Each structure stands twice: as structure tokens, then as C-alpha cells.
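3.2 Worked example (two chains)
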Amino acid sequence: MKVFPGTTPGTILFRVYEFVELHNHALLSTNSMEFSKKWRRLGFTERHFIHKLSLNKIGPNIAHNLQCLLKGGSHNVHGTKTDFKNAARDSRVFITDRDAQMLVDTLKARSENLPNFSFDFKIVGCELRSVFWADDVSKCNYAVFGDVLGFDATYRTNKYGMIFVLFTGVDHHKKCVTCGAGLLYDETIESYKWLLEQFLKSHKTQPKLVLTDQDAATKQAVPAMFGQSVHRLCMWHIVKKIPLKISGDLLSNENLRVSIHKLVWNLFITPSTFEEQWNQLMDGLQLSDHHWLKEIYAIREQWVPCYFREIQWCCLMKTTSRCESSNALFKVNTRKSNTLVQFLLCFGTALDRQQNTQLKLDTETETTTPHMQQKLPIEIHASRIHTRRIFLEVQKEIYRGMKRCYITSSSETDGTKIYNIAHTNKRFQIVNNYVVSLIIVPGTIVMCTCMCYTHSGYLCRHVFCVFQYNQIVEIPTKYLLARWMRNTFPDRVHDIANKCSADDDAESVIRRNIFDTLTECVDRLRHKTENLNDILARVKDIRDRLFTEFPTEPSCNSKRAIISELIGQLDTVDVLIKPPTGIKNKGSGTKRQVGVVEQLFERRNKNPRLCGKCNKYVFDHDARNIEKVQAAKEAAAAVGTDDLSALGTAATETAYDHSVNRYLLRSARRASS
């Protein structure tokens, strides 16, 4: 190396002898600086932004669009859409085959660092097969609201197809709360037994009533593990099959479905009355020998409400709609391409949102005063002890006890007052009669034959009618249940430490305080350009001094180090547990197969379309296949038989399948008659 005259010894200088323009790319213009390699590099803030949005099911494309909007244009955003996509990809690449091990390590760390957190897992060979976990909030939920429990399996929450099972209860605002969760490899009896066994280990006690769908595995696993609980099947899953199981002319008879629904949903009849009316209905419709109706009647004690009317809280859950609502809440945040670690982070985000809703309702109950319809002392008393949602229901019972109920007769025997109450509708027509028994001394004891207190947990309108007559101005303490009252939850449930997705470490808190402080200053100085320039100059001065003190990027700002921090896992993990493979459950892969009859009714439930040729709103054809459908109808009417082979090619070439052709044939026969 040549040393040039006039330079300090040890200094290396270079001299340009020749410049070849062809060997160099064109320099970027000022307007294109956003596409330079240095500007496109994503730092911690950008990757943190992408990661947090992904926990709310917001992809990198929308994340980039949001950044462009927030920062005033794409020229102010580090990275392009492709860079944002690559950042999301890098997180999945970082996890790869260490997914199951990272999931177990994360849950293990929570059990060691969080109070009252429990989890367990099951491996076969070296593959993860089942996981169950419940934190302190879930255990508090179950301790207060675990008398009625529902659980339902859902799919498409992770890329392996593991079944997500959520245990759901009903809180004092009548909102869904989580009592535990699990992931299963398959839906066998053994898998559900293992899951329920872990649930009992975590919560120690069994619920009074368990609600599930008609899944064959759960129907056997629940009674085996919850021997002290009443197992109830979802009514909706059974009743919705009526149009699919009862076909022919009876299906078009609206009175059939109305009669069955009116009978099976009636909570105020006795089992013997239900059986008598059911048999009368089946005989009148000539359905006594119908195979499916005989099957559901044989298991009537597992799903018809009147068989549960004496079980406490039986009205909190009649269907698994609450379970499906909870599943939908968690699926809002997750997607089927998520790894197990990403799914767990999304689960925490959704759980925090559920807790925030509960805290919001608690605050509204404590800080606002409801409207008093009658301003009665008993109404005011109810508003002071119940949550807002429950008070509104109790208030409705008080109001209707005054307006729609009246005493027809009364008597007294051995200190017990007996009142016959007439129950009227909106037109003040008597629709039913109930009997209320009242003992005032010693202590107020009241009973009503409608059993509202048993199945709902608060007194009915008939009792409030009697209370008004006897000038009782407060609800007796015996009938004030803790699950419907204010402040029934321990305060620690809403602590920041119990929020799964909260960044409460010291560095995150300081970073947020810096951003918030700068934001407050900038907001205070809006439209004051000189003052804003002064703040900018000071901030740049601080930046220059920091960059002088720390001239190079720290190792913690590398891509893998940032991803490791965001996911909460070390870069080096010993893999002893591998993700599951080969899962083939009914809802984990492709969409379930829909039967031809169900397809028919899905089409019938759609809105009619305007046919361009006949100029009518119709269900069964459009301008493309009107000739084929009309030919099939004419052939069906001419044949007058159920033998579809006689319809010829005209019927088989229609847009409808075999079962739909049968429906067209029956419609044509009814029209011709």
C-alpha cells in the first residue's frame, strides 16, 4: 500500500485512477429514497407493529396500509409491503419444527412465574397429542360461575389441524367467560377423558350441569368423568334437523314445525304432560313410526327442557350457542395458518378482550344509575345489589308482576299463605295460573310453581305480585345469590399481571411512556410551528448524542433477536417434542360434506333471483337453465309417479341433483292437484 506525502503514518488513502460508468448503477433520486436498502430495513418498532396486528388477525398488507395512513404516506414508512410480508414469514421460519417444544416451554414458564397457573400435556412417541391449560382468571371464573359449563370443539385454529376445545361459563353479566382450554389430536373418547381429567385436576370440583352437542365421544366421556354432573345435549342441534329428517308433504306444513317447537321448548310443563302431548301430536300427524322422531324421543331426558326444570340454573344454557359464540370470539384473532405458539398468543389477546368487556360492565354497574320505571322500594333495592344486566331482568319481573299478574284467590294454612296468581299476556288475557306459597315468620320463604328462581336464580313476577300485596319492600337475603351480585369477583382478576397479552416489563413501560410523553407535547403544540421545530431540534440533539455514544447497532436489534423477543422464546431450543402430524378430523381439513337434502334447504333459504327470461323472482332456475327445469316439471307432472327414471334426460340434466328432482316432482304433483 502506497503512502502519500503529507499524510499521517498509518493512514490509508485511495486514489481514483479511472471511473467506468457502466460498472455502476444509477444513483437513487430523492423521491426514490424509500426503496433504498437502508430505508427498507425493518427495526424493532416495525416488527413489533406487524406482530401485534397479527395477534388480531390483521395481515402484513393491511399492516403496511395502516402504517402509511398513520405516518402520512408510504415514503415515511420503513419497508414495502413485500418487506412486511417477509417479516411475517420470518416469524414462522424462526419457529419451524420447534413449535410444539416452544408451546410447552411457554406454558411451563407461565406455570413457574404466574400464580395459580396449571397446565399439562400428553405426548405419544415424540409428538405432542394433547394440551390443557387454565390460568388464575379461568379458575376464578369457574369458582364463581362454574355451576353450568359448556364445551365445544372448533377447528381451523392452527396449521396442524389440532382441535381447540374451550370450556365456557356464564358470568354475572350473562356474558361468556372462559374456564379453561385445550388442544386435542383427535376426537376420541380417550382424548376427551384425558382432557376432562385435567380439567378436574385443575378445578377440583365438578359442575352441576354440563352442556355439549351430540358428538358420540363426548356423550360417553362426560358421564364417565363427570359422574356427579347432569349431562345435557344441545337443543338447537336436535331441533334444526327437523326439516332434514321429515320430508314430503308434511315438511311444507308449517303447523308441524310450530307444534313441535312449541312443545319441546316449553319449560313450564311436567314431563308426564310433555309425553302425553308428544304422543297426541305424533298420532295426529301419523308420525308414530318415524324412525328419527322415535330416536330423539327415546333420549328426551337428555335434551327436552321440562326434564331439567328442577335442576338449578338449567336455563343458563339450553344450547351450545354460547360455546360457539366464545369459539367465534377466539377465532376472530387466530387463523388456520398459525403455528401453536402464535395461536397461544392470539388466545391471550382474545382472553384479554373478554376480561376487558367484563371490567367495562362492572364499571358501568358501579358508576351509573339505571332508569327506575316505578321507583318502588323493592326496585331500588334490586338496583343496588344486582349487576345491571340482572337488575334489568328483575325489574321486568317486578313491572310485569304489577301490570300483568293479579291474585285470583288466597288461603292460609298453618302460617303458610297460598295465592293463586293469574298470568296474563299483552292483551291481559289469562294464559296460565300459578300458585305462590309465602311464609313470613320466621324469615321470609316463598315458592312459586313456575320455578323461576330454581332455573334462573332470581324471583319471578308472580312472587313480586305477592310481595306487593304483602307490602314487602326488599328482596329477602335468602334469594340474593352471589353469582348475580356486584363485586362477586376478586379484584386480582383485573390486575395487569393477569392479562396475557399485556407488555408490562420495565422496558416496554418506559418505551410507551416516551411515546406518550412526546405525543402529549406535540398535541399541546398543534399549529405552533416554531415550538414544534424547537422540540424536533432537541430530540435530534438527543439522538445525535446517543448515536455518538453508541455508534453501532446492538446485537439485540438483529432480526432473529427481535423475533425471539416478540415470541418470547430463545433462539436456541432443544427440540424434544415435535408438532403432531397426520390429523384427519371431521372439521380440521376440508369443509364437511353437506348432504343433498341439506343443500336443497340451503338453496331454499336463499333470497329469490330475478330470472331474465320469465321476469319473475324464483328459487329453482335462472335464465341459463329455465328450459331444462321447465321440461323436468312438465315431465314430472305428466308421469305422476315417484319413478325418476321415467323423467328421462330432461330431469337428469337439470342444475339440481337427485333429491331436488324429487322435490320438483312432488311440487308439480301438488300444483296439478
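3.2.1 Second chain
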Amino acid sequence: MKFYKYYILLLLFLLIKPVFGKATSLSEDTLKYTGKFKNLGVQVAEKWLEGSVFTEDDDGNEWVYTVLRGKPGYLLGYNLTKSSLMVNLPLERMDGAWDITVSSDGWLYIAGSAGGRLAKHRPGSQKIEDLGKPLSSETYLFAVTPGKNGEIFGATYPGCRIFRYHPSDGFKDVCNGPIVPSENYVHGIAYHEKTSKLFAGIGSHSYLVEIDVATGQKREILPGKYRGLPGFVYDMGIVKGLNGGDRLFANLPDQHKTLVYNLDKKTFDAEIPKIIMVKGVVKSPYDQKVYYTDSSSLIAHDVLKPTVSPQLLVKTSRAMNMKWGKDKKLYLLNSDGDLIRYDPISGKTVTKDLMLPPQPIGINITKTGPDGRIWTGGYLVGSNATYDPKTGKTQRYFGLHQSESITLNGSDMYFGIYPKGKFYKYDTRKPWDLKEGNPKLLGHIEGQDRPFCGTGIPESDQMFFGTVPDYGRLGGALIEYDPKTDKLIAYEGLVPKLSLVSMIYHEKEIIAGTSVWGGLGIKPEVNEAKLFGWDPQRKVKTFELVPVSGAKAITCLIKGPDGNLWGVADGVLFVLNAPLRKVIASYKLFELTVQQKNSAVWRDVNLVIHPSGKVFGTGNGRLFQIDPQSKKVVIVSEKPAFFVSMDKQGILYFRDGKDLWSYTP
């Protein structure tokens, strides 16, 4: 009898015992719910132009081609000779293409972004041929440029490589490895036919490398004052026929400069103190001027006469590409989808809206707004939308770039925007009108790039945000915004070398979770993520601890149903008694693969507390439920699910690609 008594006591002890330091492994059961899933459809749609080029078909007709980002992306071809959009083809395995180019034998090549695939198209035809991945290790293509005799070259991520493709012999890794060891990006690429030299623009630390295609020999040519700095040599273009030699134009956006390199003399001639669209730089057929656009104008510039000011010709958004037509008029396709014909003799322009159709855009985030509508943000190209649960209607809001976070404070919404870590405040009681300052730009913090988290203090209206630094940097910042002073204050170095990726106001403290990863293109220097507290009144750090040993990122913080702080780090749920600064229990929600543990993670898990008392979440690409007492995890559906939010009726929302879904438990 005593044996059974002790056996029962042991079972009870194991069932209720919280585990300190080491996570309890919990089974993942798939539950056949009677709840209702509903696809609410595309939320964000944009007319976002990417790779563009002017060319001719086999019959001599002039064309302009562009790629519209979307799910999927589309290749569009406008016949200039017939003034008609005649090619409109889906890029079935691509969501867009940063660059397209035309080879010397007349083929148009498409550098797919996510997925890293290459495709080709004969101008004027109705067919696209998928050529596959140039290099198996590479997941992203950033640029392509024509070489000689039908060959093309392409730039890749994350291996910092350049490939060559020719229809007769396929793909080749030009340098048999990274162009610059330890770097990830070849972003810009240009080929100089006269010297058979290839030029590669590198990031996340700036390098400009000259490559001998025949031998693979490399030579770094970027001026020493810029070499190796965090940032990019971004895009490039070559202008032939200028006096004294052909010129390479390369922009350095982090330095707000464009460099001009003499390819014959192997020296830098000039620095243009702005970022210009170097892919579209062309020489005038009449004189030594070059034509280019910045973000707002078409400009004529005699770069050989640095004392002569550039001439502003026409107001226009940036040119995706430009070319002189057979009629000696300058044709440019701008980022708004307008085709502009400029006559340099008369100075007159003709503008035609090509009426390019907006495409569905992937959803980056979901958030329940103050009025109960579900907000979404578009991935990569930005824009926002709301879904109204009452009416079932979607409304779109344009003007903001990629929303990494949305934080509420009363009727106000704060948008954390990538790139360059910008913050906007939107008063939901007034119309959305960027020109009228609603949303209002609050500013940005130099060196910070992605604001992934934020929280408000209701009693003071203060706002706090956390950031991931810019490319090639480590160390995020805690950002304070006080509406009374209308200023942003950055506290950097609170947790050295770590990014801030989750945040909550809890027990009169700001508590933030971190990630070991900084901006892309640099390896972590800290082994595990930390949790820390901040006193918003005294402006001091109150504590710092590691909640889950060895975890790389703390991606979620909420006030749990038991009143304690709940957080998730690398798939482990931990329960923190904040006043005691002590983790009182931890439970494994899901396993991470070796690849996941070694990949950059800024966010993963989102949790919400349902009116039923259950806790729902998304993480590791699935929608799941946690029992608040036992912490048992149930996978609600094997369907991909990310960024869960919940409306006032307890209906859950999440995204799958371009579509917003709802789930009614």
C-alpha cells in the first residue's frame, strides 16, 4: 500500500513541478478543430517596378521591359513602336527581379530575387524559360550584366559570388568562391567589354572589386576612406565614349555619394554628392554630357567639367532605366510606371502612363488596430492595409515603406519602418494623408535599421522601441519618444552587440528581449540572447539575465494569464517572475533544426490570450494553442501561419504569403 502511495505522490510531483533552467519537453499533438478557417484574400497590392531595360526584338521593334514585384512577379513588355503593352507574363517561381539585362545575342535574362533563380525570354515572344539556380548555395540574385558572345554574369547572396551563364555551357562560379571572404552580398555588377574586366559592388561592408574574367584575378579599387566601412557599393553602370576614357558609375548610398571611375586611366575622376540611378546613366549623342536621374529630376551633367553645375531638365521620379531611341529622343521608364520621351533639342517632354496593374504583395506583419480592424504591412515594397471584421472589406493605405512593427497607444499607432529605422505616428481619428503629416515622420536613429518592437506607457504617453542595427553592424538601441517634447532619444550599448527584438511594459518597467544577430552581413559575437529591464523614469537599466541557456533570440514577450511575464526564446516558453528577476518555469514548444539555430532570427513567435483563457500563437510557421495550466501544446493546423493577432470577438488572424486568414476557435 505504501508503494502505491509514494508512486502517486511522485506522479503528482512530476506533473506540477516547474522546471528551472531546463525546459520540459512537451508533445505536439495535431488537433482536429471544429473551428472555422477562412481565407480573407490579398490585403496589400502595389505597383512596384524592379529590373527594367530597353531593347529591340528580332524585327527591330523597340521595347521597354520591366518586372512588377508580386506573388508572383510579372514580366511586362511595352512595344514602343506600336505603343502597346504586349507582354504580360507571370514569373511563376519568382516574387520579383532586382535586375534584368539583354545579352549580346538578344536574349533577355531575369535575375529572380528570393529563391535565386535565373530565367530568359526572347523579346516580343510570349514565353519565359526557367534556367534554375545558377549556384546551389545562393538564395538571392541581385544583378545581371551582359558579357561577350551571348554570355551574362550575375551577382548573388549570401555567398558573395558571381556566376557566368552561357547557353552552350551553362553555369560557372567565376571566382570559385566569395569575391570578398566573410562578406555576403555582391549587389552591383558591371562588365567592361573593351578590357574584359568585371566590376563587383560588395556589402555589408563596402568594397569595389575589379575581376579579370579570364584568370579570375581580383583587385580592390575602392578608395581607402570608404573601403570596408559598414554599407554597400550598391549599383553600377558604365558610360562609353566619354573623352579620356569610359566611365564606371558606382553609388555608395551609406555615404550619400556616387563615384565616377575612369576605366582607361584606372583612377577616380569625380564624386557626385548624391545618389543617382546609375543603371540608367547614358551619354548624350550630341556632346559630352551624361543624363541621369536622382529621386526627383532628370539631370544633364558634364562630369568632365566639375565646376559646371548639373542642369535640372524635367521633374520625374527615379528612372528604372533610360536609352536613346532611334529618333534621338531620350526614353526613360520611371518608378511610377510612366514612359517619358525627352527631346534635348526642344526641351519638350511627352509622358505616357503605361497603366501597369498593381500586384498582390506578401504580408510582413499583422496587428489589431484601436478600432478593431486588422492592419497588415507589405513585405519589401511597403504599403499597408486594413481588414474590417464588421464589414469584411479591405482598405489600402499607401506611402510607408516596409512596416517591421506597429505599436498602439490609445488612438495613436506607431509604425517602425525599414530601411534606416524610421518612426511614424498615425492619429487614427484623422484621415491618412502623408502630405498633411498623418502619419507624421518622427525621425530616425543613425546606424539603426529595423524597428521590430515597441511598447507604450499609458500613464505618461511615452513610447519605447527596439531596433536591429544597419547592415554589417552589431548592437541595437532602445529608443524613447515623448510626445510632449516630440523627440527621439536613443540609448545604445545597454546590451552590447545584441539587437532588441521584443518588448513589453510590465510591472512599471520596460522589459526587452534581444537577439544575438545584428544587421545582415556580420556574424554574432555574443553566444546567447539576454533579457533586460529599463526604468523609464530614472532612465537606468534595472536587470539583465539569460532566460534560456544557449538561446539565440527572445522573440516574444507578453503578460501571461497567470500574471507573470511569458517569453519565448528558440522555441522555449519561459515564465519570469519579474519582481524576483527569476525564471520560475520553462517548457519546450517546438524543436529548432540545426539550420534554424544557425540562421539570423529577429522574430518568430507571437502569442495572444483568447477570451476562453487559452493562449494561441504562431511560431515555426504554424498556428498552435497552449493550455495555460499544463502548458501542453496543440498544433491547430499544419497550414503555414505567421504573425497571429486577434480581434475583439476572439477571432484570430494570421498571414500565409500574400493572403490574410482568419480562424474562429
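3.3 Remarks
Residues 18-42+359-664 form a domain with the Methylamine Dehydrogenase; Chain H fold (CATH 2.130.10.10).
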